Amino acid sequence: QVQLQESGPGLVKPSETLSLTCTVSGGSVTSDSYYWTWIRQPPGKGREWIGHFLYGGVSGITNYNPSLKSRVTMSVDASTNQVSLKLKSVTAADTAIYYCAREVRFGASAFDIWGQGTLVTVSS
Amino acid sequence: AIQMTQSPSSLSASVGDRVTITCRASQGIRNDLGWYQQKLGEAPKLLIYAASRLQSGVPSRFSGSGSGTDFTLTISSLQPEDFASYFCLQQYNYPRTFGQGTKVEIK
Question: Following DSSP, what letter does each residue of chain A receive, concatenated?
Fold first, then answer.
């Protein structure tokens, strides 16, 4: 079955760029049936949808949360079957558990597969 | 952004109890809502999609209802493995938004 696994540095310095990878196993990131999504949850706070990426061949289609749009970049690497997230100019407010998830595009959509999440702390 | 108000934030219940959790959307979202379960340190799990459709493999004691702005997740007879956190998530428009979550604890 499809599994998602997030990975990346657990500690990032303020003002630097947070970079995470989601490795997809048992399925393909090039499928046009799914959005590949990043979600985060700061400690003790609510969940926030960061955005998603839809594979489109040479280039993909992205949709980002307006609250983060100026700092976020998502991409997909078909050769490694990975989805990446970059968040620049981080502050302590970006400390959170970051999840990748798969959102079904067609029919009755849902976020049907999630990773376990990875904690990223922003601190000097 | 659509605000999702989930209640209660926590509840204590016993095995066998009927449990109800609600989510209210700040505007109509048709039936574009899912319910998820999350246990500590684990990936969230889809329980209900399109407000009332049971995800494959999920026990039938879980059910969802509602449309428009008001939605309910019901666990008909709470089992030991159901003690977890639950949240709703709207997929009507962007950005996707979440309820704050409900922690179900053992009484």
Answer: --EEEEE--SEE-TTS-EEEEEEEESS-TT-TTEEEEEEEE-TTS--EEEEEEE--TTS-EEEE-TTTTTTEEEEEETTTTEEEEEE-S--GGG-EEEEEEEEE-SSS--EEEE---EEEEE--
